[in-house]
Amino acid sequence: MAEINKVVAHLLDGRRIKGTTQDFFPNRATFHIQPTDGKPATEVLVSEMKALFFVRDLAGNRQYKAVRGFSRGTVPEAQGKKIAVHFKDGELLCGYTLSYSPERETFFMLPADGGSNNLRVCIVTGSAGEIRVGPAAETLAGKVAGRKAA
């Protein structure tokens, strides 16, 4: 039996779809999200997504203050290369990846902020305006954070 994952799909048009999924595979064109309110499942096209967030809790925590960038000590067992993803809509995600390749349509990353609601994120590569790996990821994170602070 497939694992049930709590997910939030961020679509390119700004909508978010929350629920659970059992049929997401990054190399497939579609998958389904089952809302928790008992309504019918929604088919999601990966090509219409910005990213799929695998979360601890669908409600989230509005009081939580996210850690921006790569603060030391936020991820107890960070593995892979540092990566910063600056989406076309202005959002910045920082984390670690074992699977990023610019030629792939999607890749997974673990958030740098280990206290966030996000367990892992599947990024649709084409939805990003800029992606940097390694030391360049910290440079991009600093540049974007500096812009937002101004």
Helix content: 10-25%
| Strand/helix succession | EEEEEEEEEEH
Q: Please, what is the average pLDDT?
A: 88
Sheet/helix structural class: mainly beta
* Overall morphology: globular
Q: In percent terms, what proportion of residues is strand?
A: 35-45%
**What is the β-strand count?**
10
Query: Main beta sheet, described?
Result: 8 strands, antiparallel
What's the arrangement of secondary structure elements?
Elements: E1 5-11, E2 16-21, E3 30-33, E4 42-45, E5 49-55, E6 81-87, E7 92-97, E8 106-111, E9 118-124, E10 128-133, H1 135-149
Antiparallel strand pairs: 1-2, 1-5, 3-4, 5-9, 6-7, 6-10, 7-8, 8-9
Describe what this molecule looks like in 3D.
- With about 150 residues, the protein is mainly β.
- Helix content is about 10%, strand content about 40%.
- It contains 1 helix and 10 strands, in the order ββββββββββα.
- The strands form 2 sheets. An 8-stranded antiparallel beta sheet has the order 2-1-5-9-8-7-6-10, covered by helices on one side. A two-stranded antiparallel ribbon has the order 3-4.
- The chain is globular, with a radius of gyration of 15 Å.
